[in-house]
Amino acid sequence: MAQETELGGYQLVGRLAVGGMAEVYQARPRPSTQRSPGEPDDIVIKRLLPSYRNDAAWVKQFVDEAKLTVRLRHPNIVRTYRCFKAGSDYLMVQELVSGRTLQYMMDAFKQAGQLMPLSASTYIGICLMKALDYIHRAKVGEGGATIVHRDVNPANVLLSVAGDVKLTDFGVAEVEGIMRGDQGALRGTISYMSPEAVLGQAVDHRADIFAAGIILWELFTGQRLFPGNSEMEMMHKVRDCRVPSVQVHNHEAPDMAVAIVRKATLADRGLRFQTAAEVAKALEVLARRNGWPTTVDALTPLLGG
Hints:
Radius of gyration: 19 Å
Strand content: 15-25%
Order of helices and strands: EEEEHEEEHHEEEEHHHHHH
CATH superfamily of the largest domain: Transferase(Phosphotransferase) domain 1
Number of domains: 2
Number of strands: 11
CATH class of the largest domain: Mainly Alpha
CATH topology of the largest domain: Transferase(Phosphotransferase), domain 1
Number of helices: 9
Strand order of the largest sheet: 1-2-3-4-6-5
Distance between the termini: 43 Å
Helix content: 25-40%
Protein backbone atom coordinates (compact mmCIF):
# COMPACT_ATOMS: atom_id res chain seq x y z
CA MET A 1 0.00 0.00 0.00
CA ALA A 2 1.41 3.36 -1.06
CA GLN A 3 2.22 5.80 1.70
CA GLU A 4 -0.23 8.69 1.89
CA THR A 5 1.15 12.13 1.16
CA GLU A 6 -1.98 14.27 1.54
CA LEU A 7 -5.08 14.45 3.71
CA GLY A 8 -7.89 16.93 3.27
CA GLY A 9 -5.80 19.39 1.29
CA TYR A 10 -2.81 19.22 3.65
CA GLN A 11 0.59 17.84 2.68
CA LEU A 12 1.73 15.27 5.21
CA VAL A 13 5.20 15.75 6.67
CA GLY A 14 5.20 12.59 8.76
CA ARG A 15 3.17 10.52 11.21
CA LEU A 16 3.75 11.56 14.81
CA ALA A 17 1.69 9.00 16.73
CA VAL A 18 -1.11 6.48 16.58
CA GLY A 19 -3.52 5.80 19.42
CA GLY A 20 -6.61 3.79 20.19
CA MET A 21 -8.97 5.68 17.90
CA ALA A 22 -6.88 8.14 15.89
CA GLU A 23 -3.55 8.81 14.25
CA VAL A 24 -1.69 12.11 14.22
CA TYR A 25 0.35 13.64 11.41
CA GLN A 26 2.44 16.76 11.09
CA ALA A 27 1.23 18.60 8.00
CA ARG A 28 1.29 21.81 5.99
CA PRO A 29 -1.54 23.30 3.90
CA ARG A 30 -1.48 23.32 0.13
CA PRO A 31 -1.69 26.80 -1.45
CA SER A 32 -5.34 26.16 -2.33
CA THR A 33 -6.36 24.85 1.11
CA GLN A 34 -9.03 26.81 2.95
CA ARG A 35 -7.76 27.53 6.44
CA SER A 36 -9.29 28.71 9.68
CA PRO A 37 -8.46 32.22 10.97
CA GLY A 38 -5.17 32.16 12.86
CA GLU A 39 -4.23 28.71 11.58
CA PRO A 40 -0.42 28.57 11.13
CA ASP A 41 1.53 26.91 8.33
CA ASP A 42 2.72 23.99 10.45
CA ILE A 43 -0.13 22.08 12.05
CA VAL A 44 -1.23 18.63 13.18
CA ILE A 45 -3.85 16.56 11.40
CA LYS A 46 -5.67 14.12 13.66
CA ARG A 47 -7.53 11.43 11.72
CA LEU A 48 -10.05 8.95 13.01
CA LEU A 49 -8.58 5.55 12.17
CA PRO A 50 -10.12 4.15 8.97
CA SER A 51 -11.25 1.02 10.81
CA TYR A 52 -13.59 3.18 12.95
CA ARG A 53 -15.02 5.61 10.41
CA ASN A 54 -18.08 3.45 9.71
CA ASP A 55 -18.86 3.08 13.42
CA ALA A 56 -21.32 5.78 14.47
CA ALA A 57 -20.26 5.72 18.12
CA TRP A 58 -16.56 6.29 17.33
CA VAL A 59 -17.39 8.99 14.78
CA LYS A 60 -19.55 10.77 17.36
CA GLN A 61 -16.78 10.61 19.97
CA PHE A 62 -14.26 12.05 17.51
CA VAL A 63 -16.57 14.83 16.31
CA ASP A 64 -17.68 15.65 19.86
CA GLU A 65 -14.05 16.06 20.92
CA ALA A 66 -13.45 18.45 18.03
CA LYS A 67 -16.60 20.47 18.72
CA LEU A 68 -15.54 20.85 22.33
CA THR A 69 -11.87 21.66 21.86
CA VAL A 70 -12.40 24.14 19.03
CA ARG A 71 -14.09 26.37 21.63
CA LEU A 72 -11.21 26.22 24.11
CA ARG A 73 -8.66 29.05 24.08
CA HIS A 74 -5.98 28.83 26.75
CA PRO A 75 -2.17 28.95 26.57
CA ASN A 76 -1.92 25.65 28.45
CA ILE A 77 -4.34 23.74 26.19
CA VAL A 78 -3.56 22.46 22.69
CA ARG A 79 -5.70 24.44 20.26
CA THR A 80 -8.07 22.84 17.76
CA TYR A 81 -8.70 24.97 14.66
CA ARG A 82 -11.42 22.98 12.93
CA CYS A 83 -12.91 19.57 12.18
CA PHE A 84 -14.09 18.47 8.76
CA LYS A 85 -14.76 15.46 6.58
CA ALA A 86 -12.68 14.82 3.47
CA GLY A 87 -13.97 11.93 1.44
CA SER A 88 -14.51 9.15 3.97
CA ASP A 89 -12.02 10.58 6.47
CA TYR A 90 -12.88 12.50 9.63
CA LEU A 91 -10.13 15.04 10.33
CA MET A 92 -9.21 17.51 13.04
CA VAL A 93 -6.71 20.36 12.53
CA GLN A 94 -4.76 21.14 15.69
CA GLU A 95 -1.83 23.16 16.96
CA LEU A 96 1.60 21.60 16.44
CA VAL A 97 3.54 21.40 19.72
CA SER A 98 7.16 20.64 18.90
CA GLY A 99 8.58 18.75 21.85
CA ARG A 100 7.89 15.72 24.00
CA THR A 101 5.19 14.37 26.25
CA LEU A 102 5.60 14.75 29.98
CA GLN A 103 5.61 10.95 30.14
CA TYR A 104 8.68 10.86 27.90
CA MET A 105 10.50 13.37 30.11
CA MET A 106 9.58 11.53 33.30
CA ASP A 107 10.80 8.24 31.84
CA ALA A 108 14.04 9.89 30.69
CA PHE A 109 14.81 11.17 34.19
CA LYS A 110 13.98 7.79 35.70
CA GLN A 111 16.23 5.94 33.26
CA ALA A 112 19.02 8.38 34.12
CA GLY A 113 18.50 7.65 37.82
CA GLN A 114 17.65 11.29 38.51
CA LEU A 115 14.73 13.24 39.91
CA MET A 116 13.24 16.05 37.88
CA PRO A 117 14.13 19.33 39.63
CA LEU A 118 11.45 20.33 42.13
CA SER A 119 11.28 23.79 40.56
CA ALA A 120 10.49 22.35 37.12
CA SER A 121 7.97 19.86 38.51
CA THR A 122 6.20 22.60 40.43
CA TYR A 123 5.98 24.85 37.37
CA ILE A 124 4.56 22.01 35.27
CA GLY A 125 1.98 21.45 38.01
CA ILE A 126 1.04 25.14 38.01
CA CYS A 127 0.49 25.11 34.23
CA LEU A 128 -1.54 21.90 34.37
CA MET A 129 -3.75 23.24 37.15
CA LYS A 130 -4.33 26.49 35.24
CA ALA A 131 -5.48 24.46 32.22
CA LEU A 132 -7.83 22.43 34.40
CA ASP A 133 -9.16 25.53 36.14
CA TYR A 134 -9.98 26.98 32.72
CA ILE A 135 -11.88 23.95 31.46
CA HIS A 136 -13.68 23.42 34.77
CA ARG A 137 -14.92 27.02 34.72
CA ALA A 138 -15.77 27.01 31.02
CA LYS A 139 -19.44 26.74 30.16
CA VAL A 140 -20.36 24.89 27.00
CA GLY A 141 -23.61 25.03 25.09
CA GLU A 142 -26.83 26.91 25.77
CA GLY A 143 -27.26 25.24 29.15
CA GLY A 144 -23.80 26.23 30.36
CA ALA A 145 -22.59 22.65 30.84
CA THR A 146 -19.37 21.96 32.71
CA ILE A 147 -16.37 19.97 31.43
CA VAL A 148 -14.42 17.13 33.05
CA HIS A 149 -11.33 15.99 31.12
CA ARG A 150 -11.34 12.43 32.58
CA ASP A 151 -7.95 11.42 31.16
CA VAL A 152 -5.38 13.67 32.81
CA ASN A 153 -2.11 11.72 32.64
CA PRO A 154 1.53 12.45 31.67
CA ALA A 155 1.04 11.19 28.10
CA ASN A 156 -1.59 13.90 27.59
CA VAL A 157 0.62 16.74 28.77
CA LEU A 158 2.98 18.15 26.13
CA LEU A 159 6.20 20.08 26.78
CA SER A 160 7.39 22.15 23.84
CA VAL A 161 11.00 22.98 23.05
CA ALA A 162 10.12 26.60 23.92
CA GLY A 163 8.89 25.59 27.36
CA ASP A 164 5.14 25.57 26.76
CA VAL A 165 3.14 23.15 28.90
CA LYS A 166 -0.10 22.07 27.22
CA LEU A 167 -2.91 19.68 28.06
CA THR A 168 -4.32 17.68 25.17
CA ASP A 169 -6.61 14.76 24.22
CA PHE A 170 -10.20 15.45 25.22
CA GLY A 171 -11.35 12.19 23.61
CA VAL A 172 -13.09 10.89 26.74
CA ALA A 173 -14.03 14.26 28.21
CA GLU A 174 -17.41 14.53 29.85
CA VAL A 175 -19.65 17.52 29.30
CA GLU A 176 -22.84 17.50 31.31
CA GLY A 177 -25.80 16.96 29.03
CA ILE A 178 -23.69 16.91 25.84
CA MET A 179 -20.89 14.34 26.04
CA ARG A 180 -21.40 11.55 28.54
CA GLY A 181 -20.41 7.91 28.61
CA ASP A 182 -22.33 4.98 30.04
CA GLN A 183 -22.91 5.23 33.79
CA GLY A 184 -20.25 3.20 35.56
CA ALA A 185 -18.11 2.79 32.43
CA LEU A 186 -14.36 3.11 32.94
CA ARG A 187 -13.00 5.88 30.75
CA GLY A 188 -9.47 7.17 30.92
CA THR A 189 -6.15 5.75 32.13
CA ILE A 190 -6.71 3.48 35.12
CA SER A 191 -3.54 4.36 37.05
CA TYR A 192 -4.60 8.05 36.99
CA MET A 193 -8.27 7.54 37.83
CA SER A 194 -9.89 8.67 41.04
CA PRO A 195 -11.30 6.17 43.55
CA GLU A 196 -14.85 7.28 42.72
CA ALA A 197 -14.25 6.63 39.01
CA VAL A 198 -12.91 3.13 39.64
CA LEU A 199 -15.91 2.41 41.86
CA GLY A 200 -18.24 3.36 39.00
CA GLN A 201 -19.60 6.45 40.70
CA ALA A 202 -20.44 9.70 38.94
CA VAL A 203 -17.37 11.91 38.60
CA ASP A 204 -16.91 15.66 38.58
CA HIS A 205 -14.01 18.09 38.23
CA ARG A 206 -12.42 16.78 41.42
CA ALA A 207 -11.52 13.57 39.58
CA ASP A 208 -9.25 15.67 37.33
CA ILE A 209 -7.70 17.26 40.42
CA PHE A 210 -6.97 13.79 41.81
CA ALA A 211 -5.33 12.73 38.53
CA ALA A 212 -3.19 15.88 38.49
CA GLY A 213 -2.29 15.17 42.10
CA ILE A 214 -0.99 11.77 41.06
CA ILE A 215 1.15 13.45 38.40
CA LEU A 216 2.56 15.82 41.03
CA TRP A 217 3.36 12.88 43.33
CA GLU A 218 5.15 11.12 40.48
CA LEU A 219 7.03 14.25 39.44
CA PHE A 220 8.23 14.88 42.99
CA THR A 221 9.20 11.24 43.67
CA GLY A 222 10.28 9.81 40.30
CA GLN A 223 8.09 6.76 41.04
CA ARG A 224 4.75 5.40 39.82
CA LEU A 225 2.01 5.79 42.42
CA PHE A 226 -0.33 3.02 41.26
CA PRO A 227 1.71 0.52 39.20
CA GLY A 228 0.34 -2.90 38.40
CA ASN A 229 0.73 -5.94 36.20
CA SER A 230 -2.95 -5.93 35.30
CA GLU A 231 -5.85 -3.52 35.09
CA MET A 232 -7.50 -5.23 38.05
CA GLU A 233 -4.41 -4.79 40.22
CA MET A 234 -4.22 -1.10 39.36
CA MET A 235 -7.95 -0.66 40.01
CA HIS A 236 -7.57 -2.18 43.47
CA LYS A 237 -4.67 0.17 44.25
CA VAL A 238 -6.62 3.21 43.10
CA ARG A 239 -9.66 2.11 45.10
CA ASP A 240 -7.59 1.60 48.27
CA CYS A 241 -5.90 4.98 47.66
CA ARG A 242 -2.78 4.44 49.74
CA VAL A 243 -0.59 7.43 48.93
CA PRO A 244 2.79 7.46 50.72
CA SER A 245 4.27 10.80 51.69
CA VAL A 246 6.35 12.37 48.94
CA GLN A 247 9.23 12.53 51.43
CA VAL A 248 9.40 8.73 51.58
CA HIS A 249 11.01 8.86 48.13
CA ASN A 250 12.35 12.42 48.08
CA HIS A 251 13.85 13.72 51.32
CA GLU A 252 14.48 17.09 49.69
CA ALA A 253 10.79 17.80 49.11
CA PRO A 254 9.53 20.68 51.28
CA ASP A 255 6.76 19.96 53.78
CA MET A 256 4.44 22.20 51.80
CA ALA A 257 4.92 20.07 48.67
CA VAL A 258 3.99 17.00 50.73
CA ALA A 259 0.86 18.72 52.04
CA ILE A 260 -0.28 19.90 48.59
CA VAL A 261 0.03 16.44 47.07
CA ARG A 262 -1.67 14.82 50.05
CA LYS A 263 -4.69 17.14 49.82
CA ALA A 264 -4.97 16.67 46.05
CA THR A 265 -5.01 12.86 46.36
CA LEU A 266 -7.39 12.28 49.26
CA ALA A 267 -9.84 9.44 48.67
CA ASP A 268 -12.74 11.54 49.96
CA ARG A 269 -13.32 14.13 47.25
CA GLY A 270 -15.07 16.38 49.74
CA LEU A 271 -11.76 16.77 51.56
CA ARG A 272 -9.63 17.31 48.45
CA PHE A 273 -8.82 20.67 46.97
CA GLN A 274 -12.17 21.75 45.56
CA THR A 275 -10.83 23.69 42.59
CA ALA A 276 -7.75 23.47 40.39
CA ALA A 277 -7.23 27.20 41.02
CA GLU A 278 -6.65 26.44 44.71
CA VAL A 279 -3.93 23.95 43.78
CA ALA A 280 -2.29 26.37 41.34
CA LYS A 281 -2.20 29.09 44.00
CA ALA A 282 -0.72 26.69 46.56
CA LEU A 283 1.98 25.61 44.11
CA GLU A 284 2.80 29.24 43.34
CA VAL A 285 3.25 29.91 47.08
CA LEU A 286 5.47 26.80 47.29
CA ALA A 287 7.61 28.13 44.45
CA ARG A 288 7.92 31.62 45.93
CA ARG A 289 8.86 30.31 49.38
CA ASN A 290 11.67 28.26 47.86
CA GLY A 291 12.88 30.91 45.43
CA TRP A 292 11.80 28.93 42.37
CA PRO A 293 10.69 30.78 39.22
CA THR A 294 7.02 30.63 38.27
CA THR A 295 7.85 31.29 34.62
CA VAL A 296 9.27 29.18 31.81
CA ASP A 297 12.71 29.77 33.39
CA ALA A 298 11.79 26.93 35.76
CA LEU A 299 12.08 24.51 32.84
CA THR A 300 15.64 25.52 31.89
CA PRO A 301 17.07 22.16 33.14
CA LEU A 302 14.65 20.33 30.84
CA LEU A 303 15.23 22.54 27.81
CA GLY A 304 18.98 22.18 27.81
CA GLY A 305 19.54 25.77 28.79
